[in-house]
Amino acid sequence: MTKEAFAAFDFSASGAARYECSLDGSTAEACESPYLAFPLETGAHTLSVTAYDSAGNAGPSANASWTVSSIFGDSADASLHPEITRTTVNPAPVAPNSWKGILRINCDFAHSDYDDPIVFPGQDGAAHLHRFYGNTLLDENSTIESLFTSGESSCQGNTLNRSAYWIPALLAPSYDPGTGSRLVDSDGEPAWKVVPAVVGNDDVAHEVFYYSAGVSDLSSIQPIPLGLKMIAGNHMGQPGMEQDTSIVRWHCQSWFSDEATNPQWSTSIPECAAPDRLRMDIFFPSCWNGTDLDSADHNSHLAYPIETGALTVCPSTHPVPIIRVSFHYAWGVLPDVYDPATETSRGWRMASDSYDVSTATPGGMSLHGDWFNAWHPEALQAILDTCIKGGLDCHDGNLGTGFRLSGTRPGTQSEPPVIGMGHGT
Prior knowledge:
The protein is 4% helix and 29% strand. With 425 residues, it is mainly beta. It has 2 domains: 7-77, Immunoglobulin-like, CATH 2.60.40; 80-425, no CATH class.
């Protein structure tokens, strides 16, 4: 009995040259040990393994049977998944002219490194400096198999949400706290420090990752396929190539920006004055081509919805509406990171910025984010069915079903040095 949506098996047979496996009565196919079956629906499952010698003669066979029970409890196992708790708090319906249906979750910072398993798979240190949230074991070698079956998560739901979330590090110039003069690094270049985001504090309930509806017809939305890779925003954004603020944008928290009454957004990092917070939003595409989990440019398999009259729909090229993912971060404009002369976010940049940052050309024009889906399918389906299709405003991991996801936990929170303005070596 298990509540995991995967199962792994090791097998061997004397004199075997190859093996064939059949999962749940399917046509037998060539397989190797260890064998990983995923994703698995709730219910009974059987794996049959047959060994063959070098002449192609069938040898011994072995069978394994097990049951996957619901994370919310069922007749096979009434207990809850350890990362699910009961709640008497009922989410309210979404406000008019607001989100159509949404779940908001918190994540703590997991770790930071110069890796990117989507753009530079298998290449250690090939990317600019990223800050990772979610699966605590994410690195350049991560695959859907490794994410879905191993590691914990710094996000609410822990092992139910082994998805990976990452953005470039936000950097501030380093100043001498006594004199206010600019510091230099070991290479004699101007030094930079990472600005920590305000995330993962369950007591404050500062939500940073949203799952919502991107199209008008809520009933048409499907779960995000397991293993889907997504990038939103353009890492090459710079002066003259400013990005669309409907996809990525910056604002000071004091601006009280919103879609309905005050759409005050910036394509670059504004000068937010202490004790304000700098905020950003990244909206991922929510229309899928229905076939590919990735594409050569990591964008073409997905598209953004379009307006048709009064409705928001998916284009015919990408006809499958899926749950919309978005990131929403805040960074405190605090004494250890602000510009000492103005006490603002002046001079801040992203590790991905490839242009000279100045008061005339503020940083942050390369804002983008990456997401790699490794949610437990039953948990993601519950989010879709109740919070999104039900038109509810589900906060802090509340699933709207009398259950909520467990709280956040930190990863290693390791921070490598800032090298080359975050570009790495």
